[in-house]
Amino acid sequence: MSTRSSSSSGACHSSSVSGSTGSPSFSPGEAVESAFFAISVYDDDGRMVAVNKRAAELLGYDREELLRHDVGAFTEGGFDRTRLASRDMREGVRLVQGKDGSRTPVAFVVAPATLSGLPYFVAVWWRIAEDDPRASSAA
Q1: Is the pTM of this model over 0.85?
Q2: Is 54 helix (H, G, I), strand (E, B) or coil?
Q3: What is the pLDDT of residue 20?
């Protein structure tokens, strides 16, 4: 069984009921777009090529603005291309700067990915409380 609904923006959302359990199934794109976590994709020059709604909200930009910048424009210390050369997964804590100048500590995981046959990096990041012990190590 499948259901479709239209939002006021004209976007269609669909879900289907799978098997006998009656649990809905959703597309991975819908899960990424509505995730609690910020998700951004960038190339090996640091150019942002995709972001989800949460990433735009945390930084205070709309998507089109974000996609005109490289990832280093929002992080203390900029973009370190040498760290990406290893193509290893990495994680840590950084300060990100929003459009309004506010600085927010975030935890992140970045991993290489091949999308449409090309190499990219996918970052998943989330805001941490300023009193979180990890926040003091944010740079």
Answers
A1: no
A2: helix
A3: 52
